[in-house]
Amino acid sequence: MYTVKSSEELQASLQQVVELLERSRVLEDLARRQGGPQHQLLEDLTRRQNMAALHNRLKSLHPADLAFILEALPPRERLEAWAQVPSRQAGEALVELSEGVRASLLEGTPRPALLEILRQLDPDDLAYLSESIPPDVLEEATGALSAQDRSWVRTSFRPGSVGQLMTQEVVTTREERACTDVLTELRSRGELPPQTDALFVVDARNVLRGVLPLHALLTAAPDRAMPGLWSPPAVVFTPDDPARQAAQAFERYDLVSAPVVDERGKLVGRLTVDAVMDFLRREAELKALQRVGLRGEEDLFAPSWNSARNRALWLGINLATAFIASRVIGLFEETIAGLVALATLMPIVASVGGNTGNQTVALVIRALALDQLSWASMPHLLRKELAVAVINGLGWGAVMGLFAYLLYRSLPLGVVMAVAILLNLLVAAVVGLAVPLLLRRLGRDPAQGSSVLLTFTTDGMGFLIFLGLARAFLR
């Protein structure tokens, strides 16, 4: 049995693993330097002792905690630790790992050991990992499965769909059965699939008819007939439904599990809350990376060339936009030369606009993810964001205008500063709303690169507004 670990306990476990790996390396180096006829024997004994201690430490960890530790280790230490993980635990940890780390471990694991790990997994986990496993290895690993399970593993679904998340572990019953017969069958199973909160009622053709809550079955009289206990399903998904839409339904209706049917209404699987939570966690991590221009999951210790390629595109876009912003400043070189204070104040105008725009972008991306934003509601949202920009622009513009006046004893400069902040906040509000919507219209993820495009616009417009006002009114 595993215990839930706090962040401090996870860090302590990581530190223990690091210390065991480091101790093994130090003792091996010491034995190697000593030389002599007993050198090899001493080195082997030392390694076995340390690896046994590492094996015992890793064996006690929950697969999710083990995945956390493996992701925090550099590649060499990660493979050394991975070699000491028991096969069943290793398979469960593979499911929890990020794509980049999982790929590195699959590549670094010898084929016989990899087959042993994969054979410990159930068909659902194999299906989840199937795209990451070499086809010939997957074929051999699934050789002992039933034809139905092999078909399940090899079935591919559209990325980001319910089909990718669903499990084939479902408990069904027929509507004409009595409660006592159903309870007897459940006891004969030995155990129920995880997150089983209901049984699915199907007819002779396996068409879904309804859902029987487990608590209703357990509290009903044993001789009671099934009709009246089950009801039509409140929520039904198909394998092609977007997983994000299903996640919203789980949150809205407080679901633990939900049936998945094909186009003919036949029950093909079940979606559970743990799979939905894992999907939402991965989505959140991916969004956080995409927001700063990274294209996907990246191993923290990935090869430098791979990381450089992953970051290159939006870095290049950022450099191009920064160059354009610098050319905006270049248009006002004479104005800046005449009043050096402009050079010290203009970053403030650009910075406050970028902050405001990022707040609007975050709200719009969240609304798009939750399907809360429609074309009909956009004018209202635009008016609201402009009103917020006016309120903040007047308040903070006055504060910064007063600051500029007190610092440089120039009332016109203070007025220019205040007006520039107000106008740039208005620009930021419009751009913060427009950028995610434009990316969505172009078929791109609104989170990907929004901050880069927003920063370019608010910086460029901030410089243009501030320096343009300065040229017009501070001659």
Description:
With 475 residues, this protein is mostly helical. The chain folds into 3 domains: 7-157, MgtE N-terminal domain-like (MgtE N-terminal fold); 172-291, CBS-domain (Roll); 304-473, Tetracycline Repressor, domain 2 (Orthogonal Bundle). It contains 21 helices and 5 strands. The chain has helices at 7-34, 39-59, 63-71, 75-82, 87-96, 99-108, 111-119, 123-129, 135-141, 147-154, 162-165, 179-189, 214-219, 243-253, 273-291, 304-330, 333-338, 341-369, 378-408, 411-441, 450-473; strands spanning 172-174, 198-202, 208-213, 257-261, 267-272. The strands form 2 sheets. Strands 1-2-3 form a 3-stranded mixed β-sheet. Strands 4-5 form a two-stranded antiparallel ribbon. Strand 4 and strand 5 form a beta hairpin. The radius of gyration is 30 Å and the shape is flat. The termini are far apart. The mean pLDDT is 84.
Question: What secondary-structure arrangement, pairings included, does this model have?
Answer:
Layout: H1 7-34, H2 39-59, H3 63-71, H4 75-82, H5 87-96, H6 99-108, H7 111-119, H8 123-129, H9 135-141, H10 147-154, H11 162-165, E1 172-174, H12 179-189, E2 198-202, E3 208-213, H13 214-219, H14 243-253, E4 257-261, E5 267-272, H15 273-291, H16 304-330, H17 333-338, H18 341-369, H19 378-408, H20 411-441, H21 450-473
Parallel strand pairs: 1-2
Antiparallel strand pairs: 2-3, 4-5
